[in-house]
Structure prediction request, 145 residues.
Amino acid sequence: MQLPQIDKALEPIDVFFNPEKHRVNISVKKIIADKKVYRKGVERYKDMLKSGGDIRTIIVVKHPEKDLYTVLDGHHRFWALKEMKFNEIKCAVIQDPFGLLFGITKDGYLQPTSELTQHLVVPLKRFEEQFNEFRRKTINPFTNS
Prediction:
C-alpha cells in the first residue's frame, strides 16, 4: 500500500499548517535567515517578547546533508529572537532531501524586500484585521445573528 509515501509527501504541508506539532529546539548558530527584513516588524516582535507574549513557531528547511537550517517562514521573528540573545529557537522543520528548497530559501528568493513588506504586506494585514473586525460587528441578514 502506498499511503505512507503519500503521508511523507504531505508532511511539509502539515509542518506549514500545524507547526506546533513539529516543534524542536535548534541552536541559533545553525540557522540562516535572510537579512532583508522590515525593522519595525522585528521591533514589534521584540516588544511582544519583552512583554511576555508568545510568537508563532518559525518554520525552517533542513539542509539535506549538514546540520544547518534556513528560515522559510518567520524571518522577523527569527531576528527578534536572535537580537534578544536567545541561544535556541523553537522551530518546525521541513526536510529537504534534494536541497532545492534549502537553496532558494537560503538565497532569499522567497523573502520579500523590506520595502515591499512596509508598503504592501503591512497595509494588507492592517486591512485584513479591520475587515475581520467589521465582519464580527456586522449582523448577517441571512442568519439573523
In short: The two ends are 48 Å apart (CA to CA). Residues 117-145 form one domain. The mean pLDDT is 79. Residues 45 and 80 are 6 Å apart (CA to CA).
